[in-house]
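Here we describe the complex-level prediction in full. Unlike the single-chain runs in Section 2.1, the two entities below were treated as one system.
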Amino acid sequence: MPHSIALVGIGKIARDQHIPAIAGNADFTLSATASRNAEVGGITAYRSLADLLQAAPDITCVSLATPPQVRYGDARRALEAGRHVMLEKPPGATLSEVQALERLAAEKGVTLFATWHSRHAASVAATRDWLADRKIQRLHIDWREDVRHWHPGQDWIWEAGGLGVFDPGINALSVLTAILPEPVHLQKATLSFPANRDTPVAVDLTFEPLGDAPITAAFDWLEQGPPKWNIHIDTDAGNAILSEGGARLTIDGHETSAGEDQEYPALYARFAELIAAGTREVDLSPMTHVADAFTLGRRVITAPFEW
Amino acid sequence: MPHSIALVGIGKIARDQHIPAIAGNADFTLSATASRNAEVGGITAYRSLADLLQAAPDITCVSLATPPQVRYGDARRALEAGRHVMLEKPPGATLSEVQALERLAAEKGVTLFATWHSRHAASVAATRDWLADRKIQRLHIDWREDVRHWHPGQDWIWEAGGLGVFDPGINALSVLTAILPEPVHLQKATLSFPANRDTPVAVDLTFEPLGDAPITAAFDWLEQGPPKWNIHIDTDAGNAILSEGGARLTIDGHETSAGEDQEYPALYARFAELIAAGTREVDLSPMTHVADAFTLGRRVITAPFEW
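The structure predicted for the assembly as a whole is:
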């Protein structure tokens, strides 16, 4: 008997990823949606999660694909109603609110899953394994895309709490924290804010070296043409490029791992596992790096951004 | 036999607070200092902690009163050398680096104590107890002081990572997190940055209401005259003002608790307890609120600041 699941926030990511991933997973049936002004053909639609929770007590799972600034209220509502909850990344607007959700989920004995979809890209696990017995000499993240192409008209992303270029950049940080043999932490950050926006359009990060190895990252939202979602890693035994957001691993010029995009199917499979095991999965380390960058970072004002 | 302790960073807070507190505690003997360009009369002085650790293996404890931007390197050095470490507030420039120190201290089996001196102000415990069986209806923190008086010439506080007005404000947050019966988290923040500085001079915080009770804070660094370090609390059974940074509690107009300043003596007493018990104390909740405010906050540019 599949879990009856509701999807909240019917925007681009819901249509592109969540709906097909749920449709392809035998453990879940999409029973309803909640969205202020969007519907999915053939699925019962509610205007708010509060209405949905009251009208449909048989829906046991809720997946939240709303912007992070408003995710907390819905997540809390769903957990208080005893439902299992899955959160798009980033899991909230603040670290403290996600910690509060984690306590609430534990109290209620339900599953809370803070997802990081990029960790399930096809070559992330292979990269982690390849690194496990090597000494890193240098690691650089190059994460550049055209915000106009990838987030057309998404104004929430430019509003305080929307993270700006950290919205894609946190994907890189979720991969970084998954492949490194030990944790790192920031030493320096520069955040470039468009004069008319509340979140950064470009970011440079310098982590404390791992041993002697520099660990750096550059995020940029004004890249023209195809996106660059690459992590370059030099080691004592070969140089690797993890590219296409984690999909493809090239070692010393030879492609050694690749696969089709199964990120969101993997997330829903993991959600079903966590529910079956009666456990939670909330790793805040990518979001902590972002909070650290905002805390530590030097702010630079750049040209205004208009769509 | 008292612990032999070294004090690192001989600035205003070291002279005003740490040195007298160590002198007044029979569990510690101040054996050396490390500071780039300052000394304490009659105490062996080193130019760096690295030199000190190598020259004085009998010094078992290290207290760090350096600015947060440079605290990590020294803390790590001391922990790796197997010494017990006490950190001034805030315990570092980033959350992740303090988490790294905590792991290192656990590995080495030594004490790490991230201090919050304001939690030991004379009336904080009385306020927590008074609140325990009351329902809060409104709480407002008013934390205003003159940076020119309290931090004369401390340029590091205006540099990225120096926290700006959060440097005093985090004291208020350390008290808030100690007196509330349950955790809160930020909903909204406005950070005012002087046009020529990298940290905020004023901050307004709105937390998610506790039940229906608004929880708010205003930090301001341009207050003229005496400082206002006050927390106003309305409850269903009386209204309180915790004033003078936590020293004085007034309930319904009557002073009910007060005492002399024993904050730093209490910190060193606690450090000795932790060493004796072989444990650590690292509560990151005040710093997490600050990181959340930087992450979530809307930035406003205000008049340049000059000393």
